[in-house]
UniProtKB/TrEMBL annotation:
It comes from the Eukaryota. InterPro entries: AKR_Detox_Biosynth, NAD(P)_OxRdtase_dom_sf, NADP_OxRdtase_dom. Keywords: Oxidoreductase. Belongs to the aldo/keto reductase family. Aldo/keto reductase 2 subfamily. The keyword Oxidoreductase applies. One of its GO terms (molecular function) is oxidoreductase activity. This is NADP-dependent oxidoreductase domain-containing protein. It comes from Littorina saxatilis. GO terms for cellular component: cytosol.
Length: 367
């Protein structure tokens, strides 16, 4: 029962970007719900998915993220069957659009008006709801004029079928273009950016997250544990032998950002970051995953962290990062330094020459 869970073990509620929407600081990602498009191991059936959703809700979670392409609609259908038995207005449901749902149909992909409109109608049916809280573009679309995409998203908000809009997987200049064009055309603002972010994936700090900070766009990190690497399951130089890490690491032809290959994982910088997290976790009596997630939660640009789980103990362990404790400034500094990637030009030059020119009245600054 929900009453058996102490308040300090429940999620904190935060604002999503500069919007008035309140979400739990842990978001449940549902890529693992239903049969996978890619044949990934450990996928959950409907009963297992519903059990995770129930536990997530008991622990104060109200923010659930999916996408139409997850299992070609299976994830949305599983959420919809669960949502039908819940009080709908207590949950924030986010989904995404871009990828093809029918490869035989040339208009079943992208961010054009037809595909977005069709996708939203189908998502609403699968989710068994009459509105989507947050509709996100899944990735930038070079083929479609941005004006067409944003006008379509705005029309959906005006119709009541969508409440808020966000983006995912974009560069800094692309996000800034989205923000400025929305302002110019009087459209609803982009309130969130779903982007890969973790102790071993910090590239977006250099540019994209600066645009988020400047415009009040809340960051929703995905793959915060890099496919399980930041749980401490593997050791330096030892290729993983079980679970999703082994599945992806064994196939160096995979091109999934969410499923790192061994070549992508086995880097000195990654091991240094992992070992720093392990040291702090041991000193604080926390898991490596909890420290890795807490580092993200204490970043100023982050609103909510998207976690995935296939087992109840994984969900509980991850959600224990949400409340009741913090990392000290010194611990944050240690993790920042241990995981710092090489900063390319011109970012390194600009940062180095401005390191002592921090003006609190200036909205820019480093993450």
């Amino acid at each position: 029962m929900a009453s058996e869970i102490p308040e300090e073990s429940k999620c904190q509620n935060v604002y999503l970007g500069k919007s008035g929407l309140r979400v739990s600081n842990i978001c449940l990602g549902t890529l693992t719900f239903g049969e996978s498009n890619m044949g990934q191991p450990g996928q959950l059936d409907e009963a297992g998915s519903h059990a995770l959703l129930n536990r997530f809700s008991e622990r104060g979670g109200n923010f659930i993220d999916t996408a139409n392409v997850y299992g070609r609609g299976r994830s949305e259908r599983i959420i919809g069957s669960w949502l039908a038995s819940q009080q709908r207005d207590r949950f924030v449901i986010a989904t995404k659009v871009f990828f093809p749902m029918d490869r035989s149909n040339p208009n079943s992909m992208g961010l054009g008006r037809r595909h977005i409109m069709d996708s939203v109608e189908q998502s609403l049916k699968r989710l068994k709801t009459d509105y989507i809280d947050l509709l996100q573009t899944h990735v930038w679309d070079d083929a479609t004029p941005l004006e067409e995409t944003l006008m379509t998203m705005n029309d959906l908000v005006r119709s009541g079928k969508v409440r808020y809009v966000g983006a995912s997987n974009v560069t800094g200049w692309q996000l800034q273009r989205i923000v400025e064009l929305n302002k110019q055309m009087g459209f609803n603002a982009c309130i969130s950016l779903q982007q890969q972010y973790s102790l071993v994936c910090r590239e977006s700090e250099q540019d994209t997250f600066q645009a988020c900070k400047l415009n009040g766009v809340g960051v929703l990190p995905w793959s915060p544990l890099k496919g399980g690497f930041l749980t401490g399951k593997v050791r330096r130089g030892q290729k993983p032998q079980e679970g999703r890490l082994a599945w992806s690491a064994d196939d160096d032809t995979l091109e999934l950002q969410s499923a790192p290959t061994w070549a992508q994982l086995n880097k000195t910088t990654n091991w240094t970051a992992l070992e720093a997290a392990e040291k702090i976790a041991k000193a604080k009596g926390k898991s490596v995953a909890q420290v890795s997630l807490r580092w993200l939660l204490q970043k100023s640009v982050v609103s909510s962290v998207i976690i995935g789980a296939t087992k109840m103990h994984q969900l509980d362990d991850n959600m224990d990062a949400s409340n009741g404790w913090t990392l000290s400034e010194e611990e944050m500094r240690q993790l920042d330094e241990a995981s710092q990637p090489e900063i390319p030009y011109p970012y390194e030059l600009i940062r180095r020459l401005n390191v002592r020119r921090n003006n609190p009245w200036n909205a820019t600054g480093y993450v």
